[in-house]
Amino acid sequence: MRWHPFQHHVATADPRPSASVHWQLWTVAFGFFMQTLDTTIVNTALPSMAKSLHENPLHMHSVIVSYVLTVAMMLPASGWLADRFGVKKVFFSAILLFTLGSLLCARSSTLHELEISRVIQGIGGAMMVPVGRLTVMKIVPRSQYMAAMAFVTMPGQVGPLLGPALGGFLVEYASWHWIFLINLPVGAVGAVITWLLMPNYTMQTRGFDFFGFVLLAVGMATLTLALGGSRSLELGPRYIALLAVVGVLALLGYWLHARRNEDALFNLKLFETPTFSLGLLGSLLGRIGSGMLPFMTPLFLQLGVGFAPFHAGLMMIPMVIGSMGTKRMIVQIVNRFGYRAVLTGATLALAAVNLVFPLVALMGWIYAIPVVLFFQGVVNAMRFTSMNTLTLKDLPDTLASGGNSLLSMVMQLSMSLGVTTAGILLGLFVASHAPSTSPANMHGVFIATYLCMAVVIALPALVFLRVPPDTVKNAVLTEQEDKS
Fold first, then answer.
1. For labelling, which of 63, 265, 433, 451 has a CA lying 20 to 30 Å from the CA of 475?
2. What mean pLDDT do residues 131-152 have?
3. What is a single Pfam family found in this protein's UniProt entry (predicted)?
């Protein structure tokens, strides 16, 4: 019998694929897609929203900030909630809140109403992704975890790439309300499937660590504001530095609080699992580099190459195809070569592709650009899935939810840090070429920026080289193991 990547693990050891598990994984995948799509789809609709709500477009940043801050502040509690009430109830509630928030956003007639609606949406979004990832850990055996994660995370990687283009299309040909209304049918179907088919796994839990939650919420909120404040809130350097200091002190305070506290939200015993420590550090550094790419690619194509905005948006499609087309290969590749080789190789390959992309574009090889972006999507997807699985696969069940939520927090911060780092590098090189903004000088600006980006992208390879060489050649079941 051929191995099925989403075969359900049950007490009877029935090797047949379970239709219910397949639908559960589809539900988690759509949840990932809705949450990640919504982080970017709003950006292109802000001017239309401002006109409809009779607001100054410069005041619309609060629509994005209210969502991002809510997600940042609620992430630390997601693991405890899933352990206490069960993954089914929490994931179902997350879908309902996200869908309700989407409906309220579409019906908002004032900016204040829209901000409140985005907070409701953010609460659902904060629980949807980490609890969805935890759900996958519960419904499939660890030997099949990577295949399942490759399946459910691919739509989430596509969301940020499609968001700006889809948002612009809906605003131009319909209205801004549809960027929220498209969530309703997907949310309704996901909620029904979750309630009918998903098991409600729970764990024995301690009391809620309220003090630790406050420290983490403050740390996440202030660091998120510091990382995005110069772009979204137009904060000055003094305020950004103050927010960063408060955020670091809050996280340091949590570490001191959790050192000898068995009831802490995130038990520090997590770091006794070597693959978790290495995976978490690699994810932090790796997503800083990956977070630069969606920001820089359309910007370079428009300012450096001269593409129209719509043309630049179309160039993101090869990245989407590359990401989606890789999911069937990742499991076999990791199973054949192991995590250390795959993660190190994919990281260095991504740095190389990052350098090839501007060179091909500036040399005028326009038809080669989609090919390069396709390979960028392939390598990036391979690295994302491998990092996620390495980080969580060896955790004991009692620590799985906490480790999963901590990984989500690191992902949130590192992706924001990636965009901020890219913006800082670009700003520094633009300033060094001032006052001239001729095409030749802009080419120099982008080449220098991409060279620095390549260094940042390659750095996590030093972390991944420390992954033990025997860390999984059994990432998946082989056909021989699955014969019945």
1. 265
2. 75
3. MFS_1
